[in-house]
UniProtKB/TrEMBL annotation, chain A:
Protein name: DNA-binding protein
Domain ChsH2 rubredoxin-like zinc ribbon residue range list: 17-53
Domain ChsH2 C-terminal OB-fold, first and last residues per copy: 57-119
UniProt-listed Pfam families: OB_ChsH2_C (PF01796), zf-ChsH2 (PF12172)
Organism listed in the record: Lutimaribacter pacificus
Superkingdom field: Bacteria
Signal peptide per UniProt: none
UniProtKB/TrEMBL annotation, chain B:
Xref: InterPro entries: Thiolase (IPR002155), Thiolase-like (IPR016039), Thiolase_C_2 (IPR055140)
Keywords: Transferase
Pfam family, one: Thiolase_C_1
Organism: Lutimaribacter pacificus
GO function terms (MF aspect): acetyl-CoA C-acyltransferase activity
Protein name: Acetyl-CoA acetyltransferase
Length: 137, 381
């Protein structure tokens, strides 16, 4: 089995991956929109176009918004595995796997609470989500 | 009274369909193009505009021997050919060229191609593909469980999309999959990406198709029954990151594209005799019916399951069997257009009696792009 893909990192997104190495899930947010977060990172706001963009640390909490249990080959993954879309408490969606949880519809209930964890991948840390400890966040 | 301004005068698919190991991707483009030229009695010397997607338009022009004064290589995925129809219409109306050839060829099964036809997305790679959704079955399907929960869409309804389209495919000698199937067959077929099973996913085929467009005042000079464009069609994009769709129950690109097509054609839904909605996977006709406004949000699963789109139903949909049963080369949009042309000419093996107006709607990438055109066999309305 080949290695899992590494992200191609660009100047505008370096902070996100640097933050992940420190165990932080960092997001851009727009000052002009009342610190409204957005994803993926970029140095301007996709809602209003302002360049007044800051970096915030997300809570790391979210819920299971949608998913598939994939039997489709992917580099470095053993099938079946879960590919999910997580809705962060900050109101942005992102793709993740669901770890520490069997790839089984019985164990994967939509809207169940999740929390961030980090997978070491080469020299990088990749944000991943797992069922929140102690249930509802 | 409005008069048609643009006509499709030539239309053909590749000589063979489904499994064509003897032709490269370039060869499939050419085979389809030569068939479309023969269909309307033209030669390459008559073509002064050329367009394709997923392949360098310059290579296709050179290979065929076309020296164009207009070209378009817009490539946003499988709906690109629908987009190119409306772009060609705009170019013809502006007098930028006189006779446009649009080609598609894809060696999806035999893989005689230099590259995959989609542009890579930087952001999709960095933030999504690294988690495994690298192929359409594990990427296009991601929003669907959310829609099932929010809108009450069921696995049985998804299965019925495949069942009904197989009924249509049975009419077509060139369809790859023609044997009748049941909901049980679909729900017991191999799990690909829960909740999607094999029979809810498109075929993988070799094939191609080509269209020839000109201004409507020339249409009667050709041996074929003209098929006219009504209105300007529509197009839009939402983008390649599927996690960033505004809603997982609805495609923004579908809504915008469909709205523009209906508005510019001046039609209402009850005017539509025949409908094609690009179906790479079973959920796409469901999103399409809702986002084009044929039914309300959350109603399309039941609408299909109740039989309204099957042979004999009020809204014949995907009458070639679609990407699920007819063929799916990878960028299937050309085949939706071909079946709509056949229906408007009155020559489809699954002919809808008396059909005068057809809507063709397609998706590009994984909910990344959309395009819609309206065809009719009436030259005024
Ligand atoms: Zn803003």
């Amino acid at each position: 089995m080949s290695e899992r893909q590494l992200p191609a990192i660009y100047p505008e997104t370096q902070f996100y991956w640097d933050g992940a190495k420190e165990g932080k899930l960092l997001l851009n947010a727009c000052t002009a929109c009342g610190n409204r977060p957005f994803f993926p990172p970029r140095p301007f706001c996709p809602h209003c176009g302002s360049r007044e963009v800051t970096v915030i640390e997300a809570s790391g909490r979210g819920r299971l918004y949608s998913y598939i249990i994939s039997n489709v080959p992917a580099p470095g993954y053993e099938t079946p595995f879960t590919i999910a879309v997580v809705m962060l408490d900050e109101g942005v969606k992102l793709v993740s796997n669901i770890v520490d949880c069997p790839p089984d519809p019985e164990a994967l209930e939509l809207d169940m609470p999740l929390e961030v964890t980090f997978e070491q991948r080469g020299t990088l840390a990749v944000p991943q989500f797992r069922p929140a400890k102690g249930g509802a966040a | 009274m409005n008069r048609a301004t643009i006509a499709i005068v030539g239309a053909a698919e590749t000589t063979k369909m489904g499994k064509i190991p003897e032709l490269s991707q370039t060869g499939l483009h050419a085979d389809a193009a030569l068939n479309a030229l023969a269909d309307c009695g033209l030669t390459v010397a008559d073509i002064d505009g050329i367009a394709t997607a997923g392949h360098d338009v310059a290579e296709i022009a050179q290979y065929l021997g076309v020296s164009p004064v207009w070209y378009d290589g817009t490539s946003v995925g499988g709906c690109s050919f629908i987009t190119l129809v409306r772009h060609a219409a705009a170019a013809l109306e502006q007098g930028l060229c006189n006779t446009v050839l649009i080609t598609h060829g894809e060696s999806g099964r035999s893989r005689h191609a230099a590259h995959r036809p989609m542009f890579p997305s930087m952001q999709q790679q960095e933030f999504e593909a690294i988690y495994g959704p690298v192929l359409p079955p594990s990427r296009f399907t991601l929003p669907v469980l959310r829609k099932m929960k929010d809108d009450g869409l069921t696995e049985e309804q998804l299965a019925m999309v495949a069942v009904v389209q197989r009924e249509w495919a049975a009419f077509h000698p060139r369809a790859s999959a023609r044997e009748p199937i049941t909901v049980e067959d679909v729900l017991s077929s191999k799990m690909i990406a829960y909740p999607f099973r094999k029979l809810m996913c498109c075929l993988v085929s070799d094939g191609g198709g080509a269209l020839i467009l000109t201004r409507a005042d020339r249409a009667k000079d050709f041996p074929t029954k003209p098929v006219y464009l009504r209105g300007a069609g529509g197009e839009s994009v939402e983008g390649p990151m599927i996690s960033q769709m505004e809603s997982f129950s609805s495609s923004k690109a579908f809504r915008i594209s469909g709205r523009e097509a209906f508005r510019s054609a001046g039609i209402s839904h009850s005017d539509v005799d025949h409908l094609m909605i690009y179906d790479a996977f079973a959920h796409l006709p469901i999103y399409g019916l809702e986002d084009l406004g044929f039914v309300g949000r959350g109603e399309a699963g039941a609408f299909i399951a109740e039989g309204h789109t099957r042979p004999g139903g009020a809204l014949p949909l995907n009458t070639n069997g679609g990407g699920l049963s007819y063929m799916h080369s990878g960028m299937y949009g050309m085949f939706a257009l071909q079946e709509a042309v056949r229906q408007m000419r009155g020559v489809s093996p699954a002919q809808v009696e008396g059909a005068k107006l057809s809507v063709v709607h397609g998706v590009g990438g994984m909910f990344s792009a959309a395009a819609t055109v309206v065809m009719t066999n009436e030259d005024r309305w």
